[in-house]
Amino acid sequence: MQVTYIQAINQAMHEEMARDENVLILGEDVGILGGAFKATEGLLEKFGSERVVDTPIAESLIVGAGVGLAIQGMRAICEMQFIDFISCGFDQIVNMAATLRYRHGGQASCPIVVRGPCGAGVHGGIYHSQNPEAWFFHIPGLKIVAPATAYDAKGLLKAAIRDDDPVIYLEHKFLYRRIKEEIPEGEFIVPIGKAALRKEGRDMTVITYGSPVHAVMKAAKDMASEVDIEVIDLRTLLPLDWKTIRTSVTKTGKALIVHEARRNGGIGGEIAARIAEELFDFLDGPILRVASRDTHNAFATPLEEYIIPNQERITEAIRKLASY
Amino acid sequence: MTEQKERELYFWLRLVREFEGRVSMLDKQGKIQGGVYSGKGQEAVVVGVCHDLRPDDWIFPLHRDLGAFLLKGADPKRLMAQIFGRREGFAKGKDSFLHGGDFSHCIFGATSMLGSTLPVAVGSAYKFKIRKEDRVAIAFFGEGASSRGDVHEAMNFAGIYKLPVVFVCENNFYAYSTPNELQFAVEDVAVRGPGYGFKGDVCSGNDLHSVMKAAKKAIDRARGGEGPTYLECKTYRYHGHSEHDRATYRSEEELVTWESRDPVERWEVYLEKRKYDVAAIKAETAQRVKKIVDEALAFAEASPWPEGPEAMEDLYAMPIPEE
Ligand SMILES: Cc1ncc(C[n+]2csc(CCOP(=O)(O)OP(=O)(O)O)c2C)c(N)n1
Asked: Domains of chain A: which residue ranges?
């Protein structure tokens, strides 16, 4: 079955809501409209307005009510119309949801998924382009996933809905309709916490996730005669699949991390630090990062192109690392 | 009202409509890259509230209030450049549409986070009060935004200190696809005003007279130290939420009903009843506003794009030197 990335997301919600009547969705315009990007299309018609709730414009409520439903045995999918608006539900995520199990000494579960479109490259400007993973990467008790393929988009969302802890699910809007691929007909799950080895290679490891996975794969292919690259698509950011990273970097001796989120305080920094701490003896070169420049997601095309990582910057970094 | 004032109000209604109409057309032609949120149908609200403001009063427009920028004195040329994301726009290309304000005319640029300007408007009003400045802050927000916590926090504070602020709710009955009955359980959101200790007032947002009268009362109250007003203007947006939205969630009949209460045509009828030469006024105004918008467009198209490294500018008062 050929599906786009966003159709895969839609299918995952349809299947999970059909499988488990305790699953419901809360968000702005998720019902009547079927979502600003049509991610929730058809859900209202199939599952009714009790389980597909067009909420007022109130992100704190959307997450907080999701927690309330969770402690009563339900599983809420909390949609942010754009992931940027997650800032308006921040407290309910980091202080309420993330600490729930901990502060109840393990009595309580918090099975909610907070999902929404993230990412740049579509002229979204400052408030419709953000990659907020680092805001949450710092918070124990949360899980964060960021699929790059339609297969993972579906499998990870199903896993997230079934997970007993709060999961932040970042869907990259640049990929929504640009990615179309064959996925299996039947039921499948992509486990949270497992990275995908997208390509094997000997010379260096490129660790990436989300939208840049595709640019990295292209670089690996285009540069095959120069350098043999191993590509890890993290898929889950929290918890990190350290084992896959360790195995690869131990083998290649070189690591480049590529993400669209800003460099300063980004997840790449944490990965780099851990590689430096634990794999120093295996390294044959510096750990490099390619990320968005440390500024806001500006609107005008030349500014946006300057800010976010592109093919050229990735190629350059690969060449630099290969030279060691 | 003098004839001159009545004609001037007509000019503003027309300018706002022409400017927004042009922006929508440019969007259709693929010439605008960011989101476009048309306020067509809601012009009487921004005209009625802003026409009599003073240069040092502050406004905090919502995403549909392009007209408020014009009324408050923003240069139409720079406003168009702003929408195009060019260097001569208020944000110098860093963001588009109404995210860049014009501080030289006391116009605040909003973030996308709905309702988030209300606490800022209230902070501004607090300063006007403690420094005994004869100024008001006008905060616009949608009935959808009224559900956000920021709105509650702002109003509560403004009530405590009786601040010189007017909260203008543009109730156009839909927040994107969400109808009012899924937004709140009251008919008029303005009933919330008394809950914060100030007055709530409702007016017809498609009738310039009605808006002007209610706005004057609210602004006088703010200037007179009597505190805030929750001013709700009932209106309707003709276009979809953004230009990409076909608005299939509402009926043709409903749209037509509201179009038949068009705020601009209504003012024309009024001018006719005043026995002015409306045909001449219309022709002259059409020419005048077309010229302004044509010039704005030419300016915007000629304005250069910012260059890549400018993305690193304007982050701090003192740029942080790169090593
Ligand atoms: C905090 C937040 N949540 C969601 C959105 C997405 N969004 C943009 S406009 C809009 C509807 C706004 O409705 P309303 O406040 O009534 O203003 P209107 O567009 O009708 O003028 C929504 C949901 C947003 N901009 N900010």
From this structure: 2-182, 196-322
Name the residue type at position B304. P
Q: Does domain A196-322 have CATH number 3.40.50.800?
A: no
Among the partner residues A56, A88, A301, nearest to B113 by beta-carbon distance: A88
| Token pair 């003896």 in the structure block, residue | A281
Per-residue pLDDT of chain A (324 residues; tens, 9 = 90+): 899 999 999 999 999 999 999 999 999 999 999 999 999 999 999 999 999 999 999 999 999 999 999 999 999 999 999 999 999 999 999 999 999 999 999 999 999 999 999 999 999 999 999 999 999 999 999 999 999 999 999 999 999 999 999 999 999 999 999 999 999 999 999 999 999 999 999 999 999 999 999 999 999 999 999 999 999 999 999 999 999 999 999 999 999 999 999 999 999 999 999 999 999 999 999 999 999 999 999 999 999 999 999 999 999 999 999 999
Tokens of A159: 């896993």
How far is C-alpha B290 from the geometric centre of its chain's CA atoms? 21
Same fold, A2-182 and A196-322: yes
- ipTM given for this complex: 0.95
A51 φ, ψ to 5°?
Answer: -105, -10
Helix (H) or strand (E) holding A213: helix A212-222
Residue range B3-303, CATH number: 3.40.50.970
**Domain A2-182 CATH assignment equals 3.40.50.150:** no
Set of chain B residues whose Cβ sits within 8 Å of the Cβ of A307: 311
Closest ligand 1 atom number to CA of residue A88: 1
Report the residue of B112, B114, B116 to disrupt the A interface, i.e. the one with the largest count of A CBs within 10 Å: B112
Query: Which secondary structure element, helix H or strand E, spans residue A169, and what is its range?
Result: strand A167-172
Would you call A307 an interface residue with chain B, using a CB distance cutoff of 8 Å? yes
Question: What is the number of other CB atoms lying within 10 angstroms of the CB of residue A271?
Answer: 23
* A311 alpha carbon – ligand 1 mean position (Å): 35
* φ, ψ for residue A207, nearest 5 deg: -105, 125
